[in-house]
Structures
1.
Amino acid sequence: MIIRSPFPDVDIPEISFADFVLHRHPKPDQKPALIDGQSGAILTYAELSQSVRRTAAGLRARGFKQGEVFGILSHNAPEFAIAFLAVVSLGGVMTPINPLYTEEEAGCQLRDACARFLLSAPILVPKALGAARFAGIEETFVIGQAEGATPFAELMKADEPLSQLHVAMDDVVVLPYSSGTTGLPKGVMLTHRNLVANLRQMEGSGFFHPDDTLICFLPLYHIYGLMVILSLGLSLGSTIVLMPRFNLEGFLSLAQQFKATIAHVVPPIILSLVKDPLVDQYDLSSLHTIFSGAAPLSDSLTRACMDRLGCQVRQGYGMTETSPVTHSSPADPEQIKLGSVGVTAPNTECKIVDLEDGRALGPLQDGEICVRGPQVMKGYLNRPDETRRTIDEEGWLHTGDIGYVDHDGHFFVVDRAKELIKYKGFQVAPAELEAVLLTHPAIADAAVVPSPDEEAGEVPAAFVVLKSETDPEAIIQFVAERVAPFKRIRHVAIIDQIPKSPSGKILRRVLRERRRSPAGVRSER
């Protein structure tokens, strides 16, 4: 059964990504485009356009050509956005790099992408220079100043008019790296058509409007921050407040100061917004919508967030390989189903298939989520076999995520296929047990991983962070009273913090390793 979007199809213009973001919608020249949350500096739309034009001219003066690759290894900053848009306005390709990467990891990405130039932040320059040497980077730029790197401001000294550029809609424009459903990180080739299509699809789903003010602490090197916040916000003419990284007090302060209307978050941050007493010290009355993505959000946590903040909570779903959005909650609060990632985006098809034989399943049956639409990537860079494993001959992208669709066309994500716990043949979803654990009054955060078991194969093991005293046996009993027998947690470890990626995903691999070697575990049953 193929599920299509309840939204009407949107037109996808034959226009380059840079022109779509910068010039498709007229924006008031003096309206703030980007606000640096650290310094308070404001970049208006007129100043943004001028900065992008000058940076592009500076790159062109250095011989940067259409199709060449520019790497960015930096935390969120206005210069990240300027460099990104300057590169793509020249028909170049931007590859964003996680600042937490080691020097070798960053160098491997730059070398695999065949990058020519690199931009970094002062604190990251030693790592950036090492990665640049490894990858043969021609010149490394830095936001501000740092020894061994060219100040980014040098690029902005040129101010020549740019000639009309012709790009093919299937040309690659952004090259983020993703592990996909399996394996090591691979370059995801996203084209002008992919990204323009997804921006139009988000518009057609009613994501937000020109008069919105957005808080962006999600990293711009991640597709969520880069596309859903920065690119869509700028294309619509919204105002974006940038934070280099998340901290709760900083977020609350900026949301209050700039009267933010929309915040894009991940579930662990919603947990903080629900449980941290610091929230009560700030005025968040301007906030009308919170978007949550990157991981499943339970209905109980959704409801608790709405009750405390008095705003709407919408979920979205997608992946780097889909530019990224394929599903989102409807804009109409009356149509939202709590715990659901929503309905398919315009121009998008979706189906649920059986994990064993690939046959299409009906409503309320768990299987792998597959999607098809104009936002699906061109493929993995220099990885044709990996591309064929992910996108089948009919154009269906196999997400590796397990979920189901109800009778109204709303989708629910259960978990990753590779993260499912197999207990005597039964499939147990860690995310489901984590949602139960988070309802315990003594638990501040939780994660569930498989633990090898001689009889059952695998059993669920929980890692929990406490906010008040309790013991592992009481937690085990609490969950047992709320789930089927085969889903019961068999082991509980009390730890100080759940390890997570910057985009908010639980690092289950780290916890599985800790399960085998329980260093740092304070209590366990």
2.
Amino acid sequence: MNACGTHVLNNRPAQDLDSVVRMVRMRAADAIIETLIESGVTHVFGLPGGQSIPLYDAMYRRKDRIKQILVRHEEQAGFMAYGYAVRSGRVGVCDATAGPGAAHLVNSVATCYHEYIPLIALTMKIQLDVHHKNPAQWLDQLTLFKAITKWNAMLPTAGLAASYMQDAVRIASSPPMGAVQIDLPGDILYAEADFEIPPKERYLPLSNRCLGDPSSIERSAKLLVNAQKPALLAGFGTIMSDSSSEVIELAELLTMPVMTCDKSKGIIPEDHPLAVGPYLADTCAGRTSALRTVEETDVLLAVGTSFSISSPETLNCIKPSTKLIQVDANPAQIGKNKKVEIGIVGDAKAVLSQLVSACKRLANPKKTDLRDSPRVKELDMLRRDWESLIRPKVESDAVPLMPERILREVQKVFLDPYRETIVSLGGGNHTVWGVLYLNGYEPRTWCVPEHYSGMGTGLTMGLGAQIAAREVIGRKSYAICIEGDGSFGMNLAELATATQFQIPVTVVVMNNEALGMIKDHQRFDPRVGGDRNGQGKRFIGTEFKNPDFARMAEAFHCYGERVEEPQQIRPALENAMKANDKGQTAVLDCMINKDAWWDYNRY
């Protein structure tokens, strides 16, 4: 039995728990690195300072097992660790020196905390014997990180270094996953002690997959089997629990359409007969095929999503008569933003597996070709309607470029032929464009800063994910980073990191010389002089003059190209792919229509 009161699903073979525990005398810094290695961590993202010297020396001595990735700004270390964790399924680790370095990590740590990304942030701290003297770079880092971590602590003595790291790995990776932070005083890192370095099976459970309550599973299965038009909304929890096969099996069993959230694209291939595309609950936006599905469903199974909201109106997207079944590993999320018919606390993969078994028993399904199903034919019509709606934009020859046309070419050159292509997005209008207009085909290939919508994240999440693909799971993948010019301007120094470590990604910059989403508010919001027809002109703080991003990319030893005409898009993408094949990052500076925006009332 586990904390949920039910047995856990044992999803990996039992290990020999009597294996030898290594007893070693070493510095605390070495014990930290040894524990990370034993836990399966392969990369640490960070930027050293004076207090970091012992930790970095420990990484140097074990560079055969763990690699340090030097970033150009500490904030981006956390976002690289984010991408690494999503793509690899392992804990991401970042570090920063005391004071300003630690403060720079706040945005990325907060993002990982709120988006359930397993992250360990190692922050250095001024040596303990001068804390009371208000030394340079001293900061109350525990208070700073307390509200944005699952757990944080200061390492009090050298002898606890391995134990604290074991706790950090376990807490970060246990549902609901999230960020932890450990303060590491410089003098303690140098101190020696005797350490036990056990195999990870000694401090990590063989499985943490909590099963759902059996009676709730049975009730939910009956609702789904008897529904006229059931639908499944697969959230990010389905990605992080690796439940793609269960999502597809349950959907096919009940001929049930599947919608995704922005962060869960790829949980079902978006060319699957039952995939209807993204539905963004926080704005009531999405592909029309998904929005119509939500409107028509009588039973909605929502797995691994909390229905986050940006305004009270978004709670009305799902009609009151729809029976909602919500599954989440975090009991605090059940019914938090939308009343439920049935709430099930449990791991997405485990609960979906239970529902498959229960529905099979109740429905006694017969094998049929999905394409012959009347429901699938209805969904085909909805998808055709969506394609008809967007065709003028995705085929547009307008100059300046329409972002939809650029993304359709990205789809044809990268994602359709190479279905494991990584897609990462920064924060801005381009986030919505990317989610709506690009298809996802494989799980753990999409990195989207949904909760914070943080700018300056697309490039670095893509770099971290590409490192994981190439060096952890051993797959050659292309990586496309869709960025706005404002977002890219915040992290373009990390092109130096991409070049130094030969991490091949392609950055597609949507350049409208503005903070587009904020400018849209000024254009359309009547409270600040705008109107629904977009006639607002009171722009302030949202327009700027950019450098030549293509030439700047060349200065970083990357491939750079400016794209201004529709016929230039595909050759530029092919040139970028050739550069990626040589291990070189590419930047395409795409000049888009300055009035391009996304109409949430239509899409």
3.
Amino acid sequence: MGKIIKLISGRPRITGTAGKVANGLLFNVSWFAIILTQSSAVAVAITGVHLVVHFFLLGNGRAELKLIAIITLVGVTLDQLLFLAGVFNLAGKSVLAPLWLSCLWPVFATTSMHAFSSLQGRPLLASAIGAVGGALSYVAGTRLTEVEFGSPLWGPLVIGALWAILFPLFLKLAAHLSTTSDPLQSWEPAVRRALD
């Protein structure tokens, strides 16, 4: 265990523009891998690897872990409600959102303190980007998977409206948690204490 602690504490941490680019690339690779496989088992594995790599290279400790948990809970709940309401269906059938789709939420959540951090203090721009980017992401997802919009017109509009509200709220939460005083902001001290 001592070797692992030394590896973790001496890890290169990517910050600044390089960190944002690395975070964006990691997100996009994971997003495409999950979407293209549409496999729950593969998606869980990809999400696990994504989170480990993310926290190793970029992670902001407990505050970011809390953010990821909150965004994932909100997102998974929202997806289930959207499937139940008929905004989405799977291969023409009304079902619950598949697990592989739910795995996109923690992957997305890792971008809030990094790739999208420059939008944290710009709610109107974040809202516009959320509306357009959210709708386009879901449209791309429906073209690459068996998930379909219940209505090709209203589905993207509903998603755009939701993302116009949610995206700036997620970023505001990320900004708040980034500045919250946390003695374990970095997770290495917690690992050290747990292993002592």
